[in-house]
Design a protein that fits this description.
The chain is of the alpha/beta class and about 190 residues long. Helices cover about 30% and strands about 15% of the residues. It contains 6 helices and 6 strands; from the N terminus they run βαβαβααααβββ. The strands form 2 sheets. A 3-stranded parallel β-sheet has the order 2-1-3, with helices on both faces. A 3-stranded antiparallel β-sheet has the order 4-5-6, with no helix packed on it. A hairpin with a 7-residue loop joins strand 5 (about 150) and strand 6. The longest helix has 17 residues, at about 20-35.
Length: about 190
């Protein structure tokens, strides 16, 4: 570890549908943190195998950086475990994560605070869509890239499911540094 660096454990993988995306993203986050001078361990974590958290404790890590997607990884399950163990981590706490994984409840919450959002409809089994196409269809409590679909045709309402079908390449690795003059310090008194 460098004199300025922290010991950070990047958690990736998990049990949810977006596991592969999480593993790629976790690798990119770990590389960026290493480039920034931090001591980094990347570990795969599952609800039935929390050994990475024990390793973090024995390693005397400073913070956990979860890069998981889906209901367990970003929807409160992992956050509850981290909070219960009193481990420092990046991201929302369990209550906020649990709310935010549900797209409908999140929309209602932010709209209640005056934030404008696009027209949407929660469609339960047996219900028909009432808003006009084209629309994007997403799972209520999964990550945003999990089985998205688009209704393109206004007359037939045919669904083009699981778009896009091509693999989206990962962006090139870059070290992100603040631009000169963008950081403001509070004046000393």
């Amino acid at each position: 570890m460098t004199s300025k660096g922290l010991r950070i454990m990047v958690l990736a993988g998990g049990p949810d549908r977006e596991r592969a995306v999480s593993l790629v993203g976790g690798g990119q986050v770990a590389a960026a943190l290493r480039d920034a001078g931090h001591d980094v361990l990347q570990r795969d974590i599952m609800p039935d195998d929390l050994s990475a958290l024990d390793e973090f404790t024995h390693w005397n890590g400073d913070a956990i950086f979860p890069v998981l997607h889906g209901r367990w990884g970003e929807g409160g399950g992992l956050q509850r475990i981290l909070s219960d163990r009193d481990l420092a981590y990046v991201g929302s706490g369990p209550a906020a994560a649990s709310l935010c994984i549900n797209k409908h409840l999140t929309k209602l919450t932010v709209a209640g605070h005056g934030v404008k959002t696009p027209e949407a409809q929660l469609i339960l089994p047996g219900q028909k869509r009432t808003i006009p196409a084209p629309v994007v269809i997403k799972a209520l409590e999964e990550g945003s890239t999990s089985r998205p679909g688009h209704l393109q045709n206004r007359t037939t309402g045919r669904r083009r499911a699981n778009l896009p079908k091509r693999r989206i390449p990962a962006p090139p690795r870059r070290t992100l540094r603040p631009r000169q003059g963008t950081h403001r310090r509070r004046p000393r008194r």
